[in-house]
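Cross-check.
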Amino acid sequence: MIGNEPRRARRWTVALVTGAVVAACSPADDAARPGTAAANPSPSAPASPADDLSLIKAEELPEVPPPPPGQPDLASVSLKLTRIATLVQPSYLTTRQGDDALYVSERLGTIRVIRDGVVDPEPMLDISADTTTDGERGFLGFAFSPDGERLYVSFTDLGGDNRVDEFDLDDGLVDLASRRTVLTIDHPYANHNGGSILFGPLDLLYLGFGDGGGSGDPNSNGQSLGTMLGKILRIDPVGTGGAPYVVPPSNPFVGQPGARAEIWGYGLRNPWRFSFDRTTNDVWIADVGQDEVEEVNFLPATEGEGANYGWNLFEGSRPFLGKAADGRVTPLTEYSHDDGRCSITGGYVYRGSQITNLQGAYLYGDFCDGRLHAVVQVDGRLTASADLGVTVDQLVSFGQDAQGELYALSLTGDVLRLDPA
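Predicted model, tokenized:
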């Protein structure tokens, strides 16, 4: 599971990935124990760009009706996974303006650079001395400023709190002396850290944080506007006048008594991965569930500000505390844990050119079963859904390159590109 505590009162044991860490858990345990992937990392190594993985096809895929004109044709999509590198517990992949290289974070605290299928021998950044890998902690995500001149990293510090630091870049190299802390959030438990960080509309920085951990959101952080936990925040990270960052005056709760002005959306349990459609700026949020439901939330670009996604009053569309949440966002799609899935990993809307029938579809998967899925929406209504017939072991994250092509990351080490079969 991504960003989740061990499932209690279960009759089986699963692999648990929480934020970006894998651990074995027993049915009655409330504390995750280090598992083999975390305890025995393999060294970073390049792999052949032509190393195509075998496709794992589902025995029976649901029949997908013909799409409306101009919509993705999921029934015609045929994929393969191409391994481009093997790293140590990769957790996120992105690109930098004006650079075709792929930048990949490793949960242990490093950023690796892949150029033409070859991993640079030295990491671009190493903050492994500043983070821990116990529980759900570690290097969670990172983002480059739109001009490619600054780097922002999201990680848990040695005390277990969420932290975002900024570095200047000099000709693509990290200036370690420029490091400054932009944001720190006290984190009461060792799970539900979130960690997504990306620049979105208006070139502002969006940050996703979990509810602080603990089963059921014991501090009710998800629905509280007085905390930054269980939220997506929006800030201008370039501080002025001694302030570490600036709150955009258009943020929805600016000036509201008792509310944190940084909040852009709330009511989230653990938005481990969210993204904006690079063509439309629509927002897609995959929120990790408690014991029953994993969900994908969608909102058009014009409707994201101030949205309430329902946790902990609801888990997906199901009442969790039995209370109403007026005006909450209901999931575009959701699924239960009945078929072996346990923790959602959000992806991107495909805007590349290599897989024509997939263009405009949103991709996501699940850490426990690894199957990749695609959904299509029209005017906020789900119109198509399909299992894409490929599987990624311990699917921890997706990535998107400068051309809009998509990648999938396995916590076991594989960095995989989605290609037409």
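Residues 255 and 346 are 32 Å apart (CA to CA). The two ends are 29 Å apart (CA to CA). Passed to J.P. for a second look.
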